[in-house]
């Protein structure tokens, strides 16, 4: 199958004022959180690698909006936004960025390895494409247990060059497993552009070659992403197998904090900034009279307060005692 | 727990013991697990219609169907990773990898995911997957189907690694491994599949973390595992004829190592020879030697000795293959040398 599932009324996003403001609020929460993370990195509060999602927020927000609580998420090392949108408390995420014991993984994972059992958030996977086989297995478990859930698996365009991408798509379609594959195509695998690394740069065609229904989505348009994810979700939940979304997006900031961005022109970044998903939704809402200054002020003020609170929480957190160094390598007691 | 004798076509019940092969013991263990726990399934290349590369799973597809006896494409990374994911999702997968050399194609999933997710998640998630891997030389399968890389996996915190060397362990280690909440890798030496042994019909769950003294002795400790246990017991017989009483330890678990059993034995015999089908450099034998040196140095009457595989990819011709591997004569010679005989 190479065609997308047709829209039905039930699959479309409900474009109420309330819902649109919610989408905007979610993107702004992630944006402000990560802008603060960059500052905290410069203050050496956050160490290691830090990969921010700034510019790409519409993808995580649009897709995750469509998931249910019992669904599963597998993400990459650029996953702060996915975790926050999925419902991992911002406090716990920020404490994890600090490496504090109050973090969502006790500080053991850090920025690249956010996990949360409560929201079925399975990482935080920093081996490019390494999360795809996990997603296939999580979906297999759902299938074998008779649960009709979706496993949403996020990865970048860099993953497409890995064998695990191809093996996983093949297996998921072969076994008709309920996986929603979301390629966050931001055009660069670290510093290597898609056109310098792929003989076929239309990524959705690769998925189609494995017989997955696949479509290209404007990843800078949160409403378009949500609409596509609802189509995909309806298809998957109907038991017809996996679905593939290629979300075309762009990373405004460096790959990580160590990246001088020698591989791309400033003009290219500026051009993409004109498609900023937050500005875009804001402008549209303003033009249609849906968003007023007072709404935006409230959203921004709430986001700032939430980020401030998360920083205070992380600052007040504790370092795990050294005596616990070798814990959490093996289960300490047998499961029931 | 009772033995599923009905599933072992060549088994014969004799009193309360069963004469069976290592292969049949594994088959019965898998079948029992599938019967006992609906979450258990077997997945791997040619485990279904073909019946398993080493015929371990023959017949299981007919009995349990394609959902639970799952043939996979030749995609080691994807199906091992899917096993890890399914374990995260609440299943109890048994993933079979045809040979340890092929497991290298899944090394990312095993080392970067199975071994780390519990730790990275701060203990929130555990990965109760069992991975069965055939390993070892002796079938003239040359340099891409014969290696012993157990040590690579035993190096990694987060994994448990076991090597059943007897029919009894082949039969009873699997269930203990499946009950373990963390990833367990089971190494099955390819020369053991046809080995016949006696199985107690009322055998129960075994502790997979403990080494076992297979033959008591007072003069020298011979430490072996998996495919080298038989050769080591043969060497002990030869030594006995020469009046040397060798104690033979079967490690059984390669991670964690049962250092207590090793050290207690060596402190008694004051001499140790480690027999390891891995290459000598950076071997498990080197690790055990270091442990003995660190913790039993003052009890030793002779330097610790190692009998390992020669530093060469396993050659195809039989005479070269056999020359590369640890053999009873070399084990006897090493043991005698520790006694100055």
TrEMBL record, chain A:
Name of the encoding gene: pdhA_2
Protein name: Pyruvate dehydrogenase E1 component subunit alpha
Keyword Oxidoreductase: yes
Record-linked CDD domains: TPP_E1_PDC_ADC_BCADC
Protein keywords: Oxidoreductase, Pyruvate, Thiamine pyrophosphate
Listed GO MF terms: pyruvate dehydrogenase (acetyl-transferring) activity
Superkingdom per UniProt: Bacteria
Cofactors demanded by this protein: thiamine diphosphate
Organism: Skermanella aerolata
Function: The pyruvate dehydrogenase complex catalyzes the overall conversion of pyruvate to acetyl-CoA and CO(2). It contains multiple copies of three enzymatic components: pyruvate dehydrogenase (E1), dihydrolipoamide acetyltransferase (E2) and lipoamide dehydrogenase (E3).
InterPro entries per the UniProt record, alphabetical: DH_E1 (IPR001017), PDH_E1_Alpha_Subunit (IPR050642), Pyrv_DH_E1_asu_subgrp-y (IPR017597), THDP-binding (IPR029061)
Automatic annotation (TrEMBL), chain B:
Signal peptide location: none
SUPFAM superfamilies assigned: Thiamin diphosphate-binding fold (THDP-binding), TK C-terminal domain-like
Cofactor (UniProt): thiamine diphosphate
Keywords carried by this UniProt record: Oxidoreductase, Pyruvate, Thiamine pyrophosphate
Entry's Gene Ontology molecular function annotations: oxidoreductase activity
Segments forming domain Transketolase-like pyrimidine-binding: 20-195
InterPro entries: THDP-binding, Transketo_C/PFOR_II, Transketolase-like_Pyr-bd, Transketolase_C
PANTHER family named among the record's database cross-references: PYRUVATE DEHYDROGENASE E1 COMPONENT BETA SUBUNIT, PYRUVATE DEHYDROGENASE E1 COMPONENT SUBUNIT BETA
Protein's name according to its UniProt entry: Pyruvate dehydrogenase subunit beta
């Amino acid at each position: 199958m190479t065609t997308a599932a047709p829209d039905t009324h039930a699959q479309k996003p409900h474009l109420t004022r309330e819902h649109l403001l919610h989408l905007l609020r979610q993107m702004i929460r992630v944006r402000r959180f990560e802008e603060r993370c960059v500052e905290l990195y410069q203050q050496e509060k956050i160490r290691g690698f830090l990969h921010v999602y700034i510019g790409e927020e519409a993808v995580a927000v649009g897709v995750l909006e469509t998931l249910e609580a019992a669904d599963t998420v597998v993400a990459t090392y650029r996953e702060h936004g996915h975790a926050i949108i999925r419902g991992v408390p911002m406090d716990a995420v920020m404490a994890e960025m600090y490496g504090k014991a109050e973090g969502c993984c006790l500080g053991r994972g850090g920025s690249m390895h956010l996990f949360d059992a409560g929201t079925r958030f399975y990482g935080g996977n920093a081996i490019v494409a390494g999360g795809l086989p996990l997603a296939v297995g999580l979906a297999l478990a759902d299938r074998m247990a008779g649960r009709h859930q979706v496993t949403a698996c996020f990865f970048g365009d860099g993953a497409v060059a890995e064998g695990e991408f191809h093996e996983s798509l093949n297996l998921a379609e072969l076994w008709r497993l309920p996986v929603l594959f979301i390629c966050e195509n931001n055009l660069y695998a670290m510093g290597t552009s898609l056109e310098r690394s792929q003989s076929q740069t239309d990524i959705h065609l690769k998925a189609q070659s494995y017989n997955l229904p696949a479509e290209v989505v404007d990843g800078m348009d949160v409403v378009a992403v949500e609409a596509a994810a609802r189509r995909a979700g309806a298809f998957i939940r109907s038991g017809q197998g996996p679905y593939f979304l290629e979300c075309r997006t762009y990373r405004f900031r460096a790959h990580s904090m160590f990246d001088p961005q020698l591989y791309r022109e400033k003009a290219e970044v500026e051009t993409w900034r004109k498609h900023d998903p937050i500005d875009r939704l804001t402008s549209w809402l303003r033009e249609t009279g849906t968003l007023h200054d007072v709404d935006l002020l409230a959203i921004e003020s709430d986001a700032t307060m939430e980020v401030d609170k998360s920083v205070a929480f992380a600052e007040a957190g504790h370092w795990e005692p050294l005596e616990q160094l070798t814990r959490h390598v093996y289960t300490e007691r047998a499961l029931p | 727990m009772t033995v599923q004798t009905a599933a072992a076509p060549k088994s014969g019940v004799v009193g309360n013991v069963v004469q069976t092969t290592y292969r049949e013991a594994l088959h019965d263990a898998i079948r029992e697990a599938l019967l006992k726990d609906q979450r258990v399934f077997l997945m791997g290349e040619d485990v279904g219609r073909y019946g398993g590369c080493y015929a371990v799973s023959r017949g299981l597809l007919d009995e349990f169907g394609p959902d639970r006896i799952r043939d996979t494409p030749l995609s080691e990374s994807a199906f091992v990773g899917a096993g890890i994911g399914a374990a995260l999702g609440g299943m109890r997968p048994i993933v079979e990898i045809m040979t340890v050399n092929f497991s290298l194609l899944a090394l990312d999933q095993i080392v970067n995911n199975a071994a780390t997710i519990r730790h990275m998640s701060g203990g929130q998630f555990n990965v109760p997957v069992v991975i069965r891997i055939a390993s070892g030389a002796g079938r003239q399968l040359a340099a891409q189907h014969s290696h012993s890389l157990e040590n690579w996996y035993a190096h990694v915190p987060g994994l448990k690694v076991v090597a059943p060397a007897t029919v009894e362990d082949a039969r009873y280690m699997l269930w203990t491994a499946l009950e373990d909440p963390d990833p367990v890798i089971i190494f099955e030496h390819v020369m053991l599949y046809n080995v016949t042994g006696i199985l107690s019909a009322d055998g129960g769950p075994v502790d997979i973390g403990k080494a076992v003294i297979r033959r008591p002795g007072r003069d020298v400790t011979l430490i072996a595992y998996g495919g080298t246990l038989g050769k080591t017991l043969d060497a002990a017989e030869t030594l006995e004829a020469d009046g040397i009483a060798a104690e033979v330890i079967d490690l059984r678990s390669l991670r964690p190592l049962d250092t207590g059993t090793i050290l207690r034995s060596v402190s008694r015999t004051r001499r140790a020879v480690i027999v390891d089908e891995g290459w000598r450099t950076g071997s498990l034998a080197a690790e055990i030697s270091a442990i003995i040196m660190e913790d039993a140095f003052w009890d030793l009457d002779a330097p610790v000795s190692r009998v390992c595989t020669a530093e060469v990819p396993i050659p195809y011709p039989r005479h070269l293959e056999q020359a590369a591997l640890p053999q009873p004569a070399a084990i006897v010679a090493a043991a005698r040398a520790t006694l100055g005989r």
